[in-house]
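#random but structural
TW: two for the price of one
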Amino acid sequence: MSRYSSWAEVKRRMRENQPDVSDAEWKSRRQAARTATEAYVVDHHLREIREEQG
């Protein structure tokens, strides 16, 4: 048996440890994280383009 947890297990434990957070709040947090990740990736690509153009 591995000593690592699956991602589904980690998410399940997070929800168990924070029962006062609603499903809508989890959805909102997930969307905020996704938006932040996409912004980071776009910024990285734009930086590469600017460096190529000098």
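TW: number two ↓
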Amino acid sequence: MTFRDHDLDDAVEKVTVFPCPGGPLLVRGPISVSNPDGSAFTPTRQTVAFCRCGRSTISPMCDGSHKLGRSGTG
């Protein structure tokens, strides 16, 4: 997965990443995401949660599975 942050200046909103303790990475700001297969998408929400535990069924996005303690493949 690749994250691209465009040239940042005062006129462009900056991207911030906040690691939630025991949970996902919250990414805020304008991003585009490229998957390993080459497909790309631009999230429609201003804040996106990316899974860090490997349990999400909608990877790379977080679905809250870390709260349930379910086994994952990652």
